[in-house]
Each structure stands twice: as C-alpha cells, then as structure tokens.
Amino acid sequence: MATVYLGLGSNINAEENLGLAVRELRQRYGELDTSAVYRSAAVGFEGDDFLNLVVRLRSEETALEICEEIERLHNLSGRVRGSQKWAARPLDIDLLLYNDLVIDERPVRVPRSDILEYSFVLRPLAELAPDLVHPVTGKTMLRHWQEFDADSHPLEPVGVIL
Fold first, then answer.
1. Average pLDDT estimate for 111-118
2. Which of the listed residues 51, 73, 88, 98 has the most CB atoms within 10 Å of its CB?
3. Tens digits of per-residue pLDDT, 86-105?
4. What is the spatial distance between Cα 152 and Cα 162, in angstroms, rounded to a whole number?
5. Structural domains in the chain, sorted by start
6. Is beta strand 92-98 parallel, antiparallel or unpaired with respect to 103-105?
7. pTM (2 decimals)?
C-alpha cells in the first residue's frame, strides 16, 4: 500500500472545486488526511487568489494510475488544458510524493519540485507530515519549511472545511 501526497489548488470557484476533488478522492481512496486550506496570490500571472491544500491518501494504485485519476478530476472540474502554463484554473492537482520513490518518467515526476519551491505546497505538506523525509534531500518537511523564505510568497490560512 503506497502513501501518496497530492497538492490541490484552485482559483475559479475554489471552494466548490476543491470540495469536488476531495469528495471524489474520498469516494475512490477512502479516508483522507488533509492539511488546512491556505489562500495565496497567483504566481506567474495576474489573477484571483488560489486556495491550496495537501491531501494524504493510501492506495494500491500505481503512480501512473493516480496521475490518470488526477486527469479525470481535472476534466470533471471543467479544466481545459491550453498553451498557457500560468493561468487561472478550476482545479490543479499535482502528485507530490509516492512513498519515497524518485521517478522522472512522464507523466510521473516525484518528488515534485514544487515542494521545495512554493510555500503553498511546502507549508501544508509540512503541517500534514512534519517528520516525512524528502526522498532526495534527506531533510524532513518541517526542516524544509523552517529553512524556507516564507515572506517570498505569503499564505493566509482560511477556514474552509472540506
């Protein structure tokens, strides 16, 4: 049984779309552990703020099968893939970690580099799994968060229950 961490974000009908994703994930994988939800400014483009969280689940599925489920959820939310990497989106789900594996074979890339680059990924991950060791750096998520420049991309906890 694999332990899987997913990053979820939305800046279009965010509460509704994140709720949809969490409900669908619970239906497929059962019990989920979730971080708090955080509001952050859009990165790379001008747009509405994002709501973000991290989810932990356990599954017998392969990393590739989980990536396929992520795409199904993107489609369910009405997300349309375009040429713009940085754009508003109803739902953005990323496979952050799959056990302690290191995989770089499209479409599976774990650990996701976003973990160490963005506060909206690292902070909720460190909250959910502070003692989890990053499979490449060998440091815990809490240690990474303590060393992170949190002022570079401020977060605001919001009282959204999913």
1. 97
2. 98
3. 668 899 999 999 999 999 99
4. 27
5. 2-113 (3.30.70.560)
6. unpaired
7. 0.95
